[in-house]
Specification:
By secondary structure, the chain is mainly α. About 80% of the residues lie in helices and about 0% in strands. The chain has 19 helices and 2 strands.
Length: about 400
């Protein structure tokens, strides 16, 4: 997961260099990011099928091959279509890695799902923290293509090596939680799609992930437009430009948030944790739009946004497994994870809205509203629906036992 992270989280460093080299419109370049996210997310249900059929090791190994090939392709691209092809390969590769690792964590640790999937997703969220500075330096040295090629080979190789050690758990190797409501029934994908609670989670997931994706893809662009990109942040023991410092801090906060909020949700419940995190993200994005032209505020507030955003990948996956069981969770969460693909469609739209209004505030306030709506839905709609869902399951169990008797 650490090795797969750069394709998404380091992309923002390459966009200005690609634009400078070829002179293409920024929105057209960002279509590559949208393609990557759409392919990564919308193929997840298919990848769930292959996980169940061939096991986690083979799927991740194939994902490593495609992940490496994606950035190598970008290093040779001389047309916009070359970068689009790299995005397709990257989406397939990262999708295989991400879906399999999350799926495996959900199956291995049902008693600590929030923490386990949070730690796993945290590898993806914080994975690029160690490589942001080396990549930025290689790009600044005048060769973004060399950065693509070198790190593409490194990332692909690490994933393939790690895949050799993966396996799924046996039934006698897992135990269930006593603090969080969890179904003992394993829903099929078709059964899950016929429940209203699935679509409430899909709507909430789409609302919350949109703001974070917008920040991930556009942070470098926003920093440039706000005039803070090259401001030197002085922390006494070292000095760094505001953008790479913010990116490094954001990756760390993004990584911390997934196990942190996952651990909290194992103790106070998923829906309460969702309300806290989504409200924090919405308020943070509003503040970023209002105070972002101040370099220190830009760094701190972007960190808060990523702290409150990263947890969506631990909370929704854990909630899905609690609600529908783990046997078919690869396919079920795969469809739910398509929300990220829907959200990615808004990334190029963000550029267009900014160009039309002349300010990023309009974009940021819009996605902040979506976060606050999701926070309200978590406690007002999702929580009572889940209670009813589990009550129905508990009622069905004795009835089924009586029928067999």
């Amino acid at each position: 997961m650490v090795a797969a992270a750069n394709i998404q989280y380091a992309w923002t460093l390459f966009v200005p260099e690609i634009q400078k080299t070829f002179g293409w419109d920024r929105a057209a370049i960002q279509v590559a990011f949208t393609i990557f996210v759409v392919v990564q997310t919308w193929l997840t249900p298919i990848e769930g099928y292959f996980i169940d059929k061939y096991g986690p090791s083979r799927v991740v190994m194939f994902g490593g091959l495609m992940t490496g090939a994606a950035w190598v392709t970008n290093s040779y691209a001389t047309s916009i279509w070359g970068f689009y092809l790299g995005s397709v390969l990257g989406g397939i590769g990262v999708g295989c890695v991400y879906a399999t690792c999350i799926n495996n964590a959900l199956k291995w640790f049902p008693d600590k799902r929030g923490l386990a999937v949070g730690l796993t997703a945290g590898g993806y969220g914080a994975g690029s923290a160690l490589t942001i500075i080396p990549i930025a330096k290689m790009i600044d040295a005048g060769s973004y293509a060399q950065a693509f090629f070198t790190f593409g080979l490194i990332q692909g190789s690490v994933i393939i090596l790690a895949a050799l050690f993966m396996r799924a758990p046996a039934k006698d190797e897992v135990k269930y939680s006593t603090k969080v409501l969890q179904t003992r029934r394993d829903y099929t994908l078709g059964e899950a799609l016929r429940t209203p609670v699935f679509y409430v989670m899909l709507l909430m997931f789409t609302c919350t992930v949109t703001g974070g994706l917008m920040a991930v893809a556009q942070l470098g662009v926003i920093a440039t437009d706000l005039g803070v990109k090259h401001f030197q942040v002085n922390l006494y023991f070292f000095t760094m430009a505001a953008l790479p410092f913010a990116l490094m801090l954001d990756r760390v906060m993004n990584g911390i948030s997934r196990p942190l909020f996952g651990w909290i949700s194992d103790r106070i419940g998923r829906e309460k944790t969702m309300f806290i995190a989504f409200a924090m993200e919405g308020i943070g994005i509003v503040a970023l739009g209002y105070f972002g032209s101040n370099p220190w505020a830009f760094v701190i507030l972007s960190g808060i946004v990523f702290l409150a955003w990263g947890e969506v990948y631990s909370l929704f996956s854990a909630t899905a497994a609690d609600t529908f069981g783990s046997k078919h969770i690869g396919k079920i969460y795969g469809v739910l994870y398509c929300a990220k693909g829907f959200a990615a469609l808004f990334v190029p739209v963000g550029n267009l809205i900014m160009q039309a209004t002349g300010t990023w505030s309009t974009v940021l306030y819009t996605v902040a509203t979506m976060d606050l709506i999701a926070a309200a839905l978590a406690v007002a709609v999702l929580r009572p629906m889940l209670k009813q869902h589990h009550a129905n399951n508990n009622a069905a169990v004795p009835n089924a036992a009586l029928a067999h008797a």
